[in-house]
Structures are given as C-alpha cells and as structure tokens.
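User: I'm new to structure prediction. If I give you an amino acid sequence, what do you actually give back? Let's try with this one:
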Amino acid sequence: MAKFLDSILGKGSSSAAESDYMELDLASFESTSGDASPASMYVKIAAINDLKDTPRVKDEIYNGNIVIVDISRLKMDKITYERVLKDLRAVAHDINGDIVGLGDQKYVILTPMSVKISREKIGGGL
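Assistant: Good question. You get back a string of structure tokens that encode the predicted 3D arrangement of the chain. For your 126 residues, that looks like this:
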C-alpha cells in the first residue's frame, strides 16, 4: 500500500514518472497546402487600401471563396470608403451571397452564394 501511495504522490523514482509522458511535435499535425487535397471553398484574407484593390476581392467572391477584408485604411477617405462598400454590397447581392461589417466597421466579411452570416452573437453577453 505504501508503494502505491508513493507512486501517486510522486515519491520514489522520478524516471518512471517521466517515462509515462511523451512529447508531441505539434508541427507534425499541421498540414501544409501541398499535402492537402484542394477544397471547394477557402477563407481568404484581404486588405483594401484603394479602389483599385476591389477587383481582386470580387474575383475571390465570384470564385466561391469567403473573404475577410480589412477596410480600416479606407476610413480616412470617406468617398472611397463608401464607393468600396457599395461595390462589395453589389457583388454580394449579384451572387446571392452575404456581407457584414465587424469590429467598428474595420473588417467586412463577404460570402459566396448559399453561405449566409448570422447576425446573432454567441455568448459574451449583450
């Protein structure tokens, strides 16, 4: 009985306790783009600094990907900000997708056809 209690409390040889554990290399669990088969939809990250950046975002939406867009730099130019948002709303409407702003309108999420964004928050209070 004493030997059993010693093993629970950690008394005795420490080498036995250390051999019970194995270190994991988390990098071996991460897949790289070359290893995985292609997906039908991707989540892409974009930043729009000017009106000329919107065609690349539109192309990704038309290709069926979800795009999270950083529009924080557009806040300084209200006219460009409104034009970009109007273009992105039109794309979402054209493809029957969805668009929603996040983080005090610093980010916009655009989704392709048949993907809708819920406006309800999960947890975190009101």
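You can read the tokens as a compact description of the fold. Here is one thing that stands out. Residues 78-94 form the longest helix (17 residues).
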